Amino acid sequence: MKNSTKNILTILFFLTFSISFAQNIEGVVTTSENIPLEAVNVVIKGTTTSAVTDNSGKFTIDSKGRLPLTLLIQYVGYTTSEIEVTSIPVNPIQVLLKEENELIEVVVSSRRRIEKVQDVPIAISVITGKQAEQTGAFNVNRIKELVPSVQLYSSNPRNTGINIRSLGSPFGLTNDGIDPGVGFYVDGVYYARPAATTLDFIDVEQIEVLRGPQGSLFGKNTTSGAFNITTRKPSFTSGADFEVSYGNYSFLQAKASVTGALGSKVAGRLSFSGTSRDGLVDNVATGRSTNTLNNQGIRGQLLWTPTVNTNVIFAADITTQRPDGYAQVVAGVAPTQRAAYRQFDAIIKDLNYQLPSQNAFDRRIDQDTPWRSNQDMGGLSLNVDTKIGGGTLTSTTAWRFWNWDPSNDRDFTGLQVLAKSQNPTRQTQITQEVRYAGQLTSKISGVAGVFFIDQTSQTDGTEESGNAQWRFSQSTTSALWKTPGLFEGYGIKTDARIRASSAAVFGQIDWAITDWLHVLPGLRYNFDKKDAHYARTTYGGLQTTDPALLALKKLVYSDQAFDSSTDNTDFSGNITVTFKANDRINAYGTFAKSYKPVGVNVAGLPTDSKGAPLLDLAVIRPEKVYHYEVGVKTSPFKNSIFNIAAFKTDIKDFQTNVQAAELGVNRGYLANADKVRVQGVELDASFVVSSHLTINGAATYTDAIYEKFTNAPLPLEETGAPVSFKDVSGTNLPGASRWAGSLGGELSDSARFFGNAGKVFLAIDSYARSEFSSSPSASKYLVVPGYAIFNARLGFRASQGLSVHFWGRNLLNKDYYEQLLPAGGNAGQYAGVLGDQRTYGITLKYNL
């Protein structure tokens, strides 16, 4: 009965649609073996009008009076077909797709119109949802293995930084007072929190990674690039897919998505993702493993098509993370310039303590403070697309929240140095973007828009000393330091609040001087305002009126409070010239002046010799970015791409993060480096060697230095020096590897499995990077060695029915660090964020 009702509604809908408008173009898409292809994307070139084939390979798309027009027929694993339509055909169009490399002619929407990626004058990498699933890239941290220009560093979700070309977020601990330089968008909604990048993808259609400033195309200004992620949309054709993976360390991941019509003009989609895994690090103090995975996410969408020219999508999502994890393992001890009795080995000897292991890759800890990294993130969005004239008017309204509930052991030992270290945060944001994109004249197309964001963040932190604090903080030989209970339970309560608002007008045009020569100027005007409040209050410890004891307590923690308010405006822009010599060669050159907004410190400030905060660091100057880039996108022979880009970025007043030696500066503080320069070359290539073999690779060379930074913090080994700052001009930026690259290939052949037509395949991919500094000021102890990892997959995949494959990651079981960081207080010990050891498992997927 249900199917009959659905069929009747479908027939009535199409009859009404055809009689009213008589603008439908119908067609059937099949393979060269005459097998119908379901879920093929059919797009009117240069617009956002699209349709999807049903299980018989049939599609219907409204021409909306645009004749002549070109249809793009796109399906992953097949060559995109272009069909010119000059009049409404009487009979359905027959479309035959040939199997080829899906990377060659994939289409993107990064310029607010649908076009081939090889025609876009931007350095851009595209990962389809299917590619991400097949390679196990279920979050951004895995994407960096496919796009080596991307770097992600995360000692926990809050302390996450995502960079492109070594720029974007200051390396180290997160400070809410500055904006990220890499934009993160999901279905047009800007996510302000870098923590969003640590959560699992949910039902992703495509991931576009744009490199370089993008201020004239996207709502939020981005100085180094953007992630433009699109999820799969609701369909009026019923469908569902289910996936489950199981691996060692009790890895379990389940995904599901269902879609279908809810009425003649309403369709829905509901998607779920869940991931769990046992810990990869053993805690000998608790007797159980830590660094587990425990993520769940759900996303729902409703599509309403009130008219043929208007689409409305309402979306809601929520994701949660409840791991016992993000513990760091002591990786080594650096001798500092402090007195001998203040060296780490001397301290722990006096306390009759020894580390559970001298080798970080034994993966053993004895930390006594629980590690908790709970976060909740979600939101609502309303997206309206309506055709007006020769373009589309889009409105994206969204509300989002992020709740962070942590607990950390910042001394990285089993000693009660810091009994508590936690800064729970509540953040909310409201965004509104309105833009118009389309053909303005026969020679000019473009995009123009306005954007607004208002966000608030509230942190109520606690840091508390334990019974070993006295020995780590001891800075004189006075016997008073040993006073029983002096520091035990002594700590600070922190109240940190920030409200940040930003508004912008932006736009870019594409002027086709000739068919082969285009000029693309873009402009942006930005207004930013930030108001911050910071206050910390000491509590606990030994209650005394003895001035000498009180003085010792103040050496560890002291009260501090300050307010700051600042605003700034900026004009920025870019100009690109693109020259398309022929269908195989597309060259471009770009100059961009970009801007990262003014910042404020909301995590405490270092103090002067009298204990007063250095208020001149309360406000951080905005970054001024000047970017130069040339690139060539080519298809040197059939079924191949080879792209190269060279870039140079100069930054004045680079916003950097400083890990302070003072415990009271809870999360470090922000500062400006005078001048930074980043330059490099990138290569992207993909080749279909035969119908059975494909090879793809990417490589990047990056030279990133502080050109001038005279008041940088001291490196770890110079803690205790008679000076407080160091000139690090000419040294490397943190997090920047000179070389990084990925290489992969797949061998496949047609096969059948349980009656399903598909392919049996063997795929291998690798990722490597050279060493990099893991400290704002280069330290010989905080250098992460270069490493390479290898992954593989073997199995069968089908567009319908059952797919199965076995997978392995880090097959050679390489020991490597993701990051190194000093312990709180800079006593000399430093810890590592460990890369995962060898993991393996099986994935089953079923498409209906």
Automatic annotation (TrEMBL):
Main location: membrane
Domain TonB-dependent receptor plug: start-end pairs: 117-226
Gene Ontology CC terms, in alphabetical order: cell outer membrane
Subcellular localization, as worded in the UniProt entry: Cell outer membrane
Any single Pfam family the record assigns to this protein: CarbopepD_reg_2
Keyword terms: Cell outer membrane, Ion transport, Iron, Iron transport, Membrane, Receptor, Signal, TonB box, Transmembrane, Transmembrane beta strand, Transport
InterPro entries noted in UniProt: Beta-barrel_TonB, Beta-barrel_TonB_sf, CarboxyPept-like_regulatory, Plug_dom, TonB-dep_rcpt-like
Membrane topology value: Multi-pass membrane protein
Signal peptide annotation: 1-22
Residue stretches spanning the membrane: none
Source superkingdom: Bacteria
Domain (TonB-dependent receptor-like beta-barrel) ranges: 361-811
GO BP term (any one): iron ion transport
Family statement: Belongs to the TonB-dependent receptor family.
Protein name: TonB-dependent receptor
Organism: Flavobacterium panici
Lineage, opening ranks: Bacteria, Pseudomonadati, Bacteroidota, Flavobacteriia, Flavobacteriales
